[in-house]
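Hi there,

I know you've been waiting on this one. I reran it after we fixed the sequence typo, so this is the corrected version. Both the input and the resulting structure follow.
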Amino acid sequence: MRNNKTYTTVQLVTLVALRFLIGWHLLYEGFSKLLSPNWTSAGFLKESQWIMAGFSQWVISNSGVLNVVDFLNTWGLIAIGVGLIMGLCTRTAAIAGALLLFMYYLNNAPIIGIEYSIPSEGDYLIISKTLIEAVALFALAVFPTGSIIGLDAIITRIKGKKDIK
């Protein structure tokens, strides 16, 4: 495992800031869904016209599955956000967040010839802010920032002290 001497202060601050900002965004999205009693992913899933369209239609057609997807989506966003902000299970949170965002992308990608009824800011011909954020999370998963600055670092130190005794 690398230690903080591998990174310059600027590199480490930049990576932790990126981790925190994306964590805040995902946490906010999760809480906004949690606090909106009528929120459901059905509207988003109805818009799916690309790779995930068949799966999305199946989810919508089964209210029990839709309820599970809504629950997992809301609480997944919250857990991933908390993990990234606190530096807890950082690599797992980053990978889970990247996969979730990539799944969003596969549902509603900005592909030529596909038009959605809901206008989307941040879609730029194949590339979207969702895809950019997913790739940023994959990059964060490669750098062990949580084990340098975060609860992962504290847990590692506590475990190390127990192993010494």
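Quick highlight: The chain has one domain: 9-164.

Best,
R. S.
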